[in-house]
Amino acid sequence: MKYIFLLLILTFELLASMVESPVISVNHENNTLKIKVDKIDVGVSGFVVHQLSENHSTVVRSVSVQSFDAQTGEATLKVTPFYLLDNNSVPYEKYKVEVGDRVELAFGYSRSLLIAPNEEIYHRITKSIKTQWIHPDLFATILSFTGHPTPLKSDFNAMADATSVGLLFVYLDKKIYTLDIKSFKILTISDAPLEQKSVHLPFYTRVQNIESSWWNWGEGSSKMKNYEKYYYKLLIKNNKKNRELLSLADKYEKGK
Question: H or E segment at 154?
Fold first, then answer.
């Protein structure tokens, strides 16, 4: 068990450092850009920074890694709007990304959220991985405001915006899935064969009950019925080409 968690720690440390690189090309039609980098995982998110003056800069767009070519050292990034600093009293910045702008990836990767089925597993994992853990009680509070007793990808994105969390860890069927919480892409899958004696739905939290809002009858408004089945579905929905995930989900269904 110590060996397993040592591997987790080493993997996490490789993920935790922020990557900075200038934009080397831009395709405005496809909303993509390219940077040079030694190595980067598909799904790592970040933003584009534009230098306004010698001492002033601003974030202008969000990005996430679409592909990485190890031979050329070029990563292709998808460009999307950046809404975190939106202010109704300030005009929206229509600036277009240019060659020479700076990309910062893996922002917030030193802060993490863990989704675990019970308190024992939560504490064993959080004590084994060195990061700044943000307690799931905060996430449960966000779900209470949105009226989602079953969390959606948008809820995890809201958690990231509210707390500057960069990484999401999900314990599922004796594995730990490490995701970029913004793109919701799986970065690593690690063995963690812990004994699961109980399940707290929708995840371990000291918040006793997350109620649905009376005005909210859409997706996420129903209470979760099965921990494993739901999180497999959520992960697959956002990682349809991840063969390892698909194989593990298939084994889970066959083993039921």
Answer: helix 153-163
